[in-house]
Amino acid sequence: MTSAERLSRIRVPAWVDGLWLALCALFILAGVALVPYHGDEATQIFMGRDVYYGLDGEWDRLAATPFDALDGEAAMEQHLRLINGTLPKAIYGAIGVMMGRSADELSAPWSWGAGWDWNLENGAIKPDDPLLLATRTASALFLAASVVVLFAIVRTVGGRIPAYLGTSYYVLSPALLINGRRAMMEGPLLFFSLLAVWLTLHILQNRRWLGYVLFGIIGGLTVASKHPGMVTVALLYGSLGIVTLYQAWQEKAMRFAVDHIMRLFIAGLLTIAVFVAMNPSWWQNPGLAIQLVVQERTRLLEEQSTALGGTNDLNERVNYFIRQTLIADPMYAEVDFFQPYITEQVAAYEASPWAGIAIGGSPIGAILLAMLAGIGELMLALKRTSQTALLVMWALGSIIFVIVATPLEWQRYYL
Q1: Which of 244, 162, 149 is nearest to 197 (CA)?
Q2: Relative orientation angle of helices 87-98 and 130-158, to the nearest 10 degrees
């Protein structure tokens, strides 16, 4: 009997899985208070004031409006509203309401043109504020929930041992821990993205209407968490469509193709509906909202690339990808001038047992990690099942998109 056969015959009680996932969640939550501060946390919490506008019935204040019709503060709020996901800030705003804070007591947005002291003196939430801890905890709970979903995905296609290995790597990743623990958008994005992946695998197993409906809803929440979630969702729709058509071609079942592509189309409409429902700024004039979102995101990316040294060189972007996904040394701040403000916080965090381990961590480690990832992808491809085919298409599509579309070496863009 081979070693692989012996491993496959090991019987582990089901409760061990639950214990493992609970320990992963506790590990994630244990580091929430220590994770170094990021200015974008202040901005995300500031945007929670949209919840207050809604509760006060000020829906017109949230509607997309031409920028030349807005004053400075209203224009700044709209800019932030349009370029960011709505779900995280809604959660953070709701937490502020439950803690009895007024809209003005949440936070001021972080001004990247000013220093640490100026921002804190002018209303940016302080690192020791209980509201910051509460909002971070909410994000970290999404990250912990994403571990459960990842375990289910890997177990579905690879078995329990790969599920334990995959979730171990995921939970120990410094980049995921830093960004998922902060009060930003990554925690919800990771959870809903992986949940969308799991639902597509479920659809391939069962092909029931409920799966399509849930996929449509979760797809909308993925994009509402952070706009790049649109790439994950689009790739999943495309991959699911391709697999469906291939199955129909193999079985010469045109009715099957029409039926399930129609279900996929309806799920797509549901994704759009959920996203729009989560974006009050789109309600009155969706066309204007789309135009302004594209305008503001394009302008912001151009400004960041110009100011911070973005590149159009494809080879350099490949290097970015390798460094941030395989070597993956933790990046606590995307801009150098912010790093001195959090030096002591970084030291305390890294001295704790909760900071994680960069499994790649070096060029040699990155090569070994890439080899393991390549073997994993090859094993998936060789299984030749509809589920593994979908995962391979989604993974390769995600890698290609990130390399082609990311001009800045910011670690959270590669999560």
Answers
A1: 149
A2: 140
For the cut 70, the answer to whether the pLDDT of residue 3 exceeds it is no
* Residues ≥6 apart with Cβ < 8 Å to 367: none
**87 token code pair:** 């779900």
Q: Give the tokens for residue 353.
A: 């047992």
Q: Residue-wise over 280-297: b if at least 16 C-beta within 10 A, else e?
A: bbbeeeeeebeebbeebe
Taking the alpha carbons at both ends of the chain, their separation in whole angstroms is 39
Rounded Cα distance, 395 and 415, in Å:
12
Q: Give the least confident one: 33-37, 91-95, 385-389.
A: 385-389
Q: What is the mean pLDDT of residues 325-343?
A: 89
H/E element, 257: helix 254-277
pLDDT tens track for 17-38: 999 999 999 999 999 999 999 9
pLDDT in tens, 290-319: 999 999 999 988 888 887 877 888 888 888
Rounded distance between C-alpha atoms, residue 84 and residue 399, angstroms: 22
Closest among 393, 398, 391 to 415, alpha carbons compared: 398
> DSSP string covering 381-401, please?
HHH--HHHHHHHHHHHHHHHH
Of 189, 210, 188, 186, nearest to 199 by C-alpha is 210
**Tokens, residue 114:** 């000013």
In eight-state DSSP terms, residue 30 is H
Burial class (CB in 10 A: 0-12, 13-18, 19+), 250: exposed
Average pLDDT over residues 198-220: 95
Both structure tokens of 78: 């709209």
Decide: 46 and 103 in contact? Cβ < 8 Å: no
